[in-house]
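Q: What changes when D-xylitol-5-phosphate is included in the input?
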Amino acid sequence: MSATIKIAPSILASDFAKLGEEIRAIEAGGADYVHIDVMDGHFAPNLTFGPPVISAIRKVTDLPFDVHLMIDPAQPSLAQYADAGADIITVHAEADIHLDRSLQVIRSLGKKAGVSLNPATPPSAIEYVLGSVDQILIMTVNPGFGGQSFMTGQLEKIRTIRSMIGDRPIDLEVDGGINTETIAAVVKAGANVLVAGSAVFSGRDYAKNIEDLRHAAA
Ligand code: DX5
Ligand code: ZN
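A: The predicted holo structure follows.
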């Protein structure tokens, strides 16, 4: 596992009225990824943004777009997200009935493939797709909203999946309730990519918020 961690601010927590500015600010503040939470109001109880918004903000930055699809089905629209500018496309193991095929489609589009698990879903759900993914995203809140509390019961799942990964080149990303209080335990458990929405987009100094997270993780 790479020693350096990656910080992926979730724009769900940003000011949508000035989305381009917000993305420039986190890029200047040292973000590694832009985490884009796509929700369809069906798989997740919220409706956020889709390909048109993603292609609009693609012009604003060269940072990798880490697109988290909380949609069901995901397979029919994977090409749209790839064309819109996604670099990593993460689908939920609980969405679609053909997870392996979705992951193959993402890679055939030339993008990195990710799979995400909701809090109630066991690690065994991804046991047979470890050869088809570049990233595993563990939810430490129930999908839908930023600003929820971190679910400490997921730490054991993070440890389990880190050991399942072994020496495969797979990033372990954690998403939900990550802040300066929770990040150290999550990194210790094996995560190397940390999604943070409210912890980054609070106050005005995003660079300091990102720096504080890196410091707290060390
Ligand atoms: C929740 C989203 C998370 C969320 C994280 O459905 O997938 O990415 O935006 O926000 P915070 O960091 O505020 O918990
Ligand atoms: Zn997310």
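Observations recorded in class: Residues 10, 12-13, 35, 37, 68, 141, 143-144, 146-148, 175-178, 195-199 surround D-xylitol-5-phosphate (ligand 1) (CB under 6 Å).
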